[in-house]
Design brief:
about 25% helix; six-stranded antiparallel sheet; three-stranded antiparallel sheet; alpha+beta; about 30% strand
Length: about 230
């Protein structure tokens, strides 16, 4: 869809909701990609207030394929350890947040999503793999661009999810919903690419900062096209 017509899709979606009357709206606004174990889609950002411009995302957004691959490849996760445990056991070793095949699947779809999104949307993703007949491991989250920075959210990372015999399957419906307390810290391989966050007093004293969101400076990611 040409960029100048970006407003057509959300208007059509809104019109469909109005025509549907009391029917509940869909959980997402646009499906970029889906297979039985993964998806990438656009959803309304829960923090956006249309009356507060500073909460809007800078979408549609353009990144090179190389930038996206570099961003995903550089993400690291490390077992979360609270301050007292860290004093006794030290820091855990970081490991890549995504496998190579996961990056190959996600990168082009996330780029497509950023190019289609409107300011009140973000791009969400979901990856899963079966453990047995009733359990699977889930990695999910979202990303968006604001002020020249790429915000990456990891809500679940290799989280074990027991498929219920009936009822709502939350892991696929709500990729931003943490199925269990996040047990990893989100890092990046080069610290200068990460935008510094303001630390609270006790986080500074105890070294207990814990967040599933990281903000990357897009100007520090490669601009070379692939």
């Amino acid at each position: 869809m040409p960029k100048k017509w970006w407003w057509v899709r959300p208007c059509c979606v809104l019109g469909g909701w109005l025509l549907a009357g009391c029917v509940a709206p869909p959980f997402y606004s646009y499906l970029v990609y889906e297979n039985p174990t993964s998806f990438v889609r656009l959803e309304v950002s829960p923090w956006v207030d249309l009356d507060v411009p500073q909460t809007l995302n800078e979408h549609p957004a353009t990144m090179s394929r190389r930038q996206m691959i570099e961003a995903l490849s550089g993400l690291r996760v490390r077992e979360y350890r609270s301050g007292p445990i860290r004093w006794f056991r030290g820091l855990a070793d970081p490991e890549p947040a995504f496998l190579k095949e996961e990056i190959e699947l996600l990168a082009p779809r996330l780029l497509e999503g950023l190019g289609l999104a409107v300011p009140q949307e973000l791009v969400t993703f979901y990856l899963s793999q079966p453990v047995n007949a009733t359990k699977r491991e889930v990695t999910s989250g979202g990303l968006f661009v604001r002020d020249g920075h790429l915000h990456v959210i990891i809500s679940n990372h290799r989280t074990s999810y027991e498929i219920p015999p009936a009822g709502v399957i939350y892991d696929r419906r709500y990729p931003l919903f943490s199925l269990a307390p996040l047990d990893v810290d989100l890092l990046y391989e080069t610290e200068e690419t990460v935008m510094a966050k303001e630390k609270k007093f006790w986080e500074t004293i105890l070294g207990d900062e814990h967040s599933g969101e990281i903000v990357l400076d897009l100007s520090r990611l490669s601009m070379m096209k692939m």
